[in-house]
């Protein structure tokens, strides 16, 4: 069996590699497209597939929410640009949502392989078919991978959860890692103060549940 693993492993904390690719909006350099912004990068196995159609429409409907968070969206599918454009027209007709973000034309599945988005268990004639899973990467402005979600082809993603995770990651980023967010956290909820934090002056109203668990409201003004 041939080696299908990427040369550079993609994991939380790794630097996302740069690449150039054709997209539904024309040629793109990944680093230039994401320059100074967060990025939600998500993959699809193919155009004109049912779950993917609902997902692209859902991300498109929330594009303003991502823009307000200084975050760009980037999709990937394994067909050419002409197919992408026909598919986008179909998505817009079905969902009533305008799709303004680019979708990579990963016909040779190079980018999907580079980002470890592939399903190594999908076989064609005994060889891995390199079928992209439903992967989500949230990448920070320094090109560091902050979150990875992987779904099987049968399960659609949850855009509200992607937004929630982005809010959490951005808050941690702003506080330089001084806080964490607990189960089911949404903006406005109490945060968790990192255990053993030496300077807790920005959390004057923290309360101790256990030595290792301190909760605190977060004053947005303290982040400025």
From TrEMBL:
Keywords: Antioxidant, Oxidoreductase, Peroxidase, Redox-active center. GO terms for cellular component: cytosol. GO terms for biological process: cell redox homeostasis; cellular response to stress; hydrogen peroxide catabolic process; response to oxidative stress. The active site is at 52 (cysteine sulfenic acid (-soh) intermediate). Residues 10-171 form the Thioredoxin domain. It comes from the Eukaryota. InterPro entries: AhpC/TSA, Peroxiredoxin, Peroxiredoxin_AhpC-typ, PRX_1cys, Thioredoxin-like_sf, Thioredoxin_domain. Thiol-specific peroxidase that catalyzes the reduction of hydrogen peroxide and organic hydroperoxides to water and alcohols, respectively. Belongs to the peroxiredoxin family. Prx6 subfamily. This is KLLA0A02651p. It comes from Kluyveromyces lactis (strain ATCC 8585 / CBS 2359 / DSM 70799 / NBRC 1267 / NRRL Y-1140 / WM37). The lineage of its organism: Eukaryota, Fungi, Dikarya, Ascomycota, Saccharomycotina.
């Amino acid at each position: 069996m041939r080696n299908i693993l990427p040369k550079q492993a993609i994991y939380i904390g790794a630097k996302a590699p740069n690449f150039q690719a054709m997209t539904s909006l024309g040629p793109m350099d990944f680093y230039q497209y994401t320059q100074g912004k967060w990025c939600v990068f998500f993959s699809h196995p193919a155009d004109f597939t049912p779950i993917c159609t609902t997902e692209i429409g859902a991300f498109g409907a929330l594009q303003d929410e991502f823009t307000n968070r200084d975050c760009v969206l980037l999709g990937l599918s394994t067909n050419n640009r002409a197919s992408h454009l026909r598919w986008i027209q179909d998505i817009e007709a079905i969902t009533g949502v305008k799709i303004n973000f680019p979708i990579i034309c990963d016909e040779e599945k190079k980018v999907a392989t580079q980002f470890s988005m592939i399903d190594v268990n999908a076989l064609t004639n005994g060889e891995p078919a390199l079928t992209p899973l439903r992967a989500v990467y949230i990448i920070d402005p320094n090109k560091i991978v902050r979150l990875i979600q992987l779904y099987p082809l049968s399960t659609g993603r949850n855009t509200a959860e992607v937004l929630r995770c982005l809010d959490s990651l951005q808050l941690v980023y702003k506080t330089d890692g001084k806080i964490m967010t607990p189960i089911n956290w949404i903006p406005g909820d109490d945060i968790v103060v990192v255990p053993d934090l030496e300077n807790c002056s920005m959390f004057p109203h923290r309360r101790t549940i256990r030595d290792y668990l301190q909760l605190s409201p977060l004053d947005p003004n303290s982040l400025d």
